[in-house]
Amino acid sequence: MTRRPGNGKGDEVSKNLRKQVETGILHVVRGMGIMAALLGAMVLTGCGDGKNSAEKFAEQGILIIGNNAEPQSLDPHKATAVADGKIISTLLEGLVRPDAQEEGRVHPGMAERWEHNADASEWTFYLREAAWSDGKPVRAQDFVYAYKRLLHPEFAGRYAEMLYPLKGAEAYNKGQASWEAVGVHAADERTLRLTLNGPTPHLLQLVLHFTWYPLPEHHVEACGGMLDRSSRWTQLGHWVGNGAYVYSGHRFNDFLSVSPNPRYWRAGEVRNRGIRFLPIVNGYTETRMYIGGKLHITNNVPPEMLARACAVVPQHFCQDPYYCTIFYRLNTARPPLNDVRVRRALSLAIDRDTLVNKVVRGAGKATGVFTPPGAGYAAEPPSFMRGGSQAEREALARHLLAEAGYAGGKNFPVLELMTTSRDVQRVMAETIQAMWKDVLGIHVEIRSCEWTAYKSAQQSMQYDISSSSWSGDYLDSSTFVELWRSGGGNNCTGWGNTECDAAIQAARVSGHAAERNAHLRRAESIMLEAQPVIPLYTSERTYLKHPGISGWYPLMLDNHPLDAVQLPTPVQP
Amino acid sequence: MIRLLLRRLAQGLLVVFVLETITFFLVRLLPGNPFLGDRKLPEHIMAQLNNLYGLDQPAWVQYLNYWKGILLHGDFGPSLVREGVQVSTIISQAFPVSLEVGVVGMLIAVCVGIPAGMLAAWYRNRWPDALLMLPAMAGICIPAFVTAPVFGLVLGTRVPGLSVAGWDNPLCVVLPALTLGLINAAYIARLTRGGMVEVLAQDFVRTARAKGCGPLRLLYVHAMRSGLLPAVSYLGPAFAALITGSFVVETCFQVPGMGLHFVNATTDRDYFLIQGLVFCYGSLIVAANLVVDLVLVALNPRLRSQGTA
Fold first, then answer.
1. What pTM, to 2 d.p., does this model score?
2. Of A434, A196, B152, nearest in space to A426 by CA
3. Containing H/E element for B6?
4. What is the DSSP string of A135-164?
5. What is the DSSP string of B34-80?
6. Facing residues of A184 across strands?
7. Any chain A CB within 8 A of the CB of B14?
8. Contact B283, B16 (CB under 8 A)
9. From first to last of its 309 residues, what are the pLDDT tens digits of chain B?
10. How many other C-beta atoms are found inside a 10 Å radius of the C-beta of residue A302?
11. Using CB atoms, which residue from A8, A46, A457 is nearest to B31?
């Protein structure tokens, strides 16, 4: 028995009609098929020559590099993000420039030499003969102009704090003093004098940061003036800089390109013919793009992709130390986290090795300290965490919690653990939640927030426990330790200690590196004993890089001088 | 017809106005502000920034200023996160990209969805029906964040010429458009099947044939016109959604379109950019619905008589 189409009235349709309608449908299908084929042909027209983007750009000597996010601004006084800084440091050059290979070593940049007084509180920089990309000379006044702009009380420079080591800078920025009181002075066109609040032996590390770069005064003034935040001077077609490259192309969320600046004073030493920065936020997409031949260097391989990346392109995989610590902030203004025993118990109950091996999959190193190793001094874990096995630490955690009145987690309130919506943070929170449940018998709720809500809650201290990270702006322990001043803007834990503050202040006025480091170490030690934060691990950068690329070495600040990077020709995917 | 058009236009303007108003106040209720960054800004800097962009004024003053900017100067204002860049600049760069992906995606959706739906309707409850509707159901159920990476890995890395992600050659449009197109094709196929099944079973199809109507005329003039009504109703909003970008697909394929801006502007609290994008999206939805209404009136004589009445 043959089944008929239709809804029961099919019998009424004659066989002939059915055949004819089938023919009609086939016509429609054929028509649509032809349309699809035409569409395909249209799209495939201009099909490539078999070379991928990485190969094509390598042939032109152009480096393609993943840059994590769309830059907010190329104006060094509006930018704050790491992604912005990477681009800006190719377009502008400060007094000194970083070494491509050796951590913390600097080379003369716009300054060809410098000197300072005995306690390193007054510095004089002698500028070389150099030009902006429009041919005008770079003068000491351009540095003065830039610093005045960032600090100007009406400009609202987001990163103005970076210049606070300059004498009188903070007071001027807050409108409490005049510009004349600020320790910046151009003795002549080639001599810049900086007077600092106190001994600053690490100034050369500070001035590597883009907030210390000069601005072309003549051009900024021509484009609207010092205080014009909508100034066109950083826009495509209007850019003037003194760096190795000039701004040459941009499409939002697609790419930003820079090409060599022929007027750069070391133009002959630039080892590539341009850079394309790709603002790829998603690490999975970026890794796929690298494997698909779209990039020469990626920004980040997410933990979940590490195994695949290592399997597919093992010789391309890189893992470098990064000047960054991942930790949990505890709101010490709220009970029971105002009890140091509870904070220590929470810290001791976390098995950091498991966290690093299973969650972060090796992209970090377990730590009990806040300042990563690599600059200044090697911090020591607090006394209650030294020695012993994880089982012993867990036993101590239970003991401390019982002492605080929560034996076995009894009567312990339900706390909230706030994280961002990033996968790795969520998984880490779930792992720690389970550890605290197993070891201490306490329950924490996880609140996963989108980025701005998370930052807003953290900065206004509307949280119990908050997942956090901190990366150094410059290679010096103070960038980590100064965070824990009482009432410091980025402290956000409610914790403060007069002894810790005194040690930080002592470090600020100390002119000797060893003595200064001893003060900073003491400040950190006081903070760690109180555990307003739970350090978890020091981060490591995992990324992919074509093995034929030269001039790129592991740097903790990830501030690679990209003009030193050379592409192999041709690049093999 | 003209009265219908004018009525719909007036309704559309009202919809966009209400949409903008609700969005304006809603985004300001979200926690945080556009100037929050990794590091906490000193209070005096935050106050200066709020003052510079008028965010320290009462909400109703900001609201009036916003409309004044649009109506008097045609200006959506500056981006608060990418300072110095106008919202109109961002939209004018991103929209053509999303439009390209959307148009190609919609062509794929229509070319695949309508024939599949028609075949499935004709072979209702037989194996071709199951063969076509099973992937259609899968297309509806499997989210784009699964389909997109799979296409990227399977096709992007293996088919010569196709691009795994990025927007640096003309072929980069293929996989994002295919992802969006096939998802929409699944919906269209289901809707077409439903519509055609109903129409093919009706008496007028048999009557038409009895009067000597040929198969092509029968399908194109009689059956398809009514059978495609559900799919056509869907096409309007779907097309507007496609050409304004999909965050998931644009993220997976690194397409510099509107979808990325939409979500990033919201998470960054870039108030003026959100307003500009909502205005754009709302206007396109209204326009697409207007076109669909007109097409439906053209296809359906009953609606035409109602419209005239």
1. 0.87
2. A434
3. helix B2-29
4. SPBP-HHHHHHHHHHHH-TTT--TTGGGGT
5. TT--SSPPPHHHHHHHHHHTTTTS-HHHHHHHHHHHHHHH----B-S
6. A194
7. no
8. yes
9. 788 788 888 999 999 999 999 999 999 999 889 998 877 888 888 998 999 899 999 999 999 999 998 888 888 999 999 888 999 999 999 999 999 999 999 999 999 999 898 888 888 888 888 888 888 888 888 888 888 888 888 888 888 888 888 898 888 999 999 999 999 999 999 999 999 888 888 888 888 878 888 777 777 778 887 888 888 888 888 888 888 778 889 888 989 999 889 888 998 999 999 999 999 989 988 888 888 888 888 777 776 666 544
10. 18
11. A457
DSSP one-letter code for A319: E
What amino acid occupies position A259? S
Subunit contact A39:B107, Cβ cutoff 8 A:
yes
Which residue stretches of A334-482 are H helix?
340-348, 352-354, 390-403, 423-440, 451-459, 478-481
Torsion angle of alpha carbons A445, A449, A455, A461, nearest 10°?
Answer: -30
State whether A81 and B254 contact (CB < 8 Å). no
ipTM over 0.90: no
What 8-state DSSP symbol labels residue A547? T
Euclidean distance between CA atoms A288 and A301, whole angstroms: 10
Question: Cβ distance A261 to A246 under 8 Å?
Answer: yes
CB contacts, 8 Å: B215 with chain A: 17, 20-21, 23-24
Scanning A165-277, the segments in alpha helix (DSSP H) are: 169-173, 203-206, 217-222
Q: Three-class SS of residue A75?
A: coil
